[in-house]
Write a structure and sequence with these properties.
Blueprint (H helix, E strand, L loop, with lengths): L36 H4 L6 H14 L4 H4 L5 E3 L8 H4 L10 H22 L8 H26 L21 H15 L14 H16 L8 H13 L9 H4 L10 E5 L40 E3 L1 H5 L7 H5 L3 E3 L4 E3 L2 E3 L4 E4 L7 H7 L4 E2 L50 E5 H14 L3 H16 L10 H12 L5 H8 L2 H8 L1 H6 L14 H6 L11
Helix pairs in contact: 2-5, 2-6, 5-6, 6-7, 7-8, 8-9, 8-14, 9-14, 14-15, 14-16
Amino acid sequence: MKIFKNIKPVIALLALPILFSACNDYIEEEFYSGVTSENFLNEDTADQLIVGVYAATRAAYNNHSYRYAGTDVFTVQSEIFSVSSENDYTSFNAPTTSGFWNAHYQVIAKANTAINRYENQISWSANKQTEKAYGIAQARALRAFAFFNLVEQYGGVPLELEEPQSIRNDYTRATEEATYKLIIEELEAAIPNLLDAPQTGRFSKRAAQHLLSQAYLTRAYKTYALPTDFQTAADLAVEAIGTYDIRSQSFPQVFAYNNQVNPEILFAAQWGGAIDADRGNNMHSLFMTAVQALPGMTVINKYGKPGNNLMPTPYFYSLFDANDTREDATIHRVIYADKVDLVGTDNIVPGDTLVYFPKVALSTEELQDKLNRYWVYQPDQYLFGRPAEIPGVNYLYTRNNLFTNFPIFKKFDDEIFFEEGGGARDAFIFRVAETHLLAAEAFFGAGNSTQALFHLNRVRERATGVANHYTTIDLDVILEERALELAGEENRWAVLKRMGKLEERINLYNPHVIDHGGFDATKHLLRPIPTLEIDISPNTMTQNPKY
């Protein structure tokens, strides 16, 4: 297996002399000792500032709750009547601070610093002007990426474009329209100087086209949209797809651990490296139960530990057709033991089945037979609670300490991690299958159903082998295909919001929202600004309505 290296933040004044071996294919920070900002930053070392922006971008992808909670395909693992503010929008108040907000402004601050130093501090030779332009283009694209993630969640945000030099108390939010305008301008300026095939982990021209397509597509639904936004988004998505045919590798191959660098991936957060402590991906811990509490399972097991309290909804599991190869690559329908143990009179050895989640409900006779060898949870038993006992079997449900049991996620399985953290797998951010789905949505919005169906069916065909599965298209069909293809990758909350489908679909498919949800469209289509940001700039910073 190739060793995946990390993108480490730049240290401006003093860096420790750390030495380690690594592969030249990945972004790597060089380490210097006894350097100052004056002699460290020159045209030969300037790229370390850009590496620092990538490092901050990677960290931003360890904040997940705003992307998944309170949607149609993800809910919480608690009792149906329990309150979870981010998921069911009940008692949803502004937090003091926010990891999502802070992480993205770290990206912006580092990008601003890099751009300022590239333009004003470093002396560039005539033959290095292309490198200068390339560095600035990467920083601007990553800055636009951070602003895009922020505006999707919060609406208009402070558009800070200068290197932070002092403590301020006058931060002011721009309008949402101005924020989208800046994002589009930044990406359009960056694209000409980005590379078609850069070093692994770098932001490519096609990645920027994918993001710019998203920005135009999102703006296309707004009151301030231009009439051409849907078509522009569609054209950009087609450019980002290029000549790549997603059918050249299967969905399971895309997620194979030894195939993390593959032509479908337009941009990924790079993790792993020679120093274990530097690994930090936590996606392997998403959407799973505390399997370490099961008999026959060690604490240090191949699945890890849950890193949040989220789970897929029953609706999500219902979407997979029998011929859809994405199901087996996305979820574990079987949990296997890794130690010797005993349940009733059944002796467990490593490799034995512990829990089985059949796709189709078993008959009473089949269920009774299997419950002598392992637990079985039927498709309607994934939410909190214990099924009715089957008398006389080894695997009584009361012998399982977990009250919520469901097929846990598989697509993010890692081979190098420590329980819920320390993962080394890359986190895919943009890949071509999503670009096809952006194209499908954009062409549909532009009134071109023929092209919309082409792109939608191309994704479906790769998964099922069936060409032209869809003959009609609407936003709900696109959302279903996005759920199957991109669960846990896409920002599901933002996609539902973009299409104007959030309230409708959570009231249809999120069991906690159905039971007691408090969604208010005049409030919850925007996230609350952290109160610390209001406190820092009390005379200029404003809160979103009703928080």
